[in-house]
Predict the structure.
Amino acid sequence: MDIDVRGPRFGAAVTTVVLAAALSLQNGWLLGWQTLVFALGAAAGVQRSPYGWVFRTAVRPRLGPPREFEAPEPPRFAQAVGLVFAGLGLVGFTVGPQWLGLAATGAALAAAFLNAAFGYCLGCEMFLLLKRASVRAE
């Protein structure tokens, strides 16, 4: 079942704030929280992640009905990509090297910001490119 496109974009906005705070404070706890959110979004889908729940229960009822929908698979894949980068950042902040934490968290932040500000989901685009490549390989 397709999902409201505003949900993942809301999640990206919250993710942007959390990752910006984690990066500027070099806070492993905040990054750990975001890593958990990415893991839940990758495992269960963005609509079942904590930010998806907030969108569904507190934000969407205050908005008009959705006009655009998207397949849930690309945002779910994007959550898995975010999980990899946040996990690398967490390793860098907790056991080192520090530059790994900064670089990986910064990369995840850049991707989340692109989605939140411009509606451009890098992970979703990666999913579609991989899908096209796998179809051509068959």
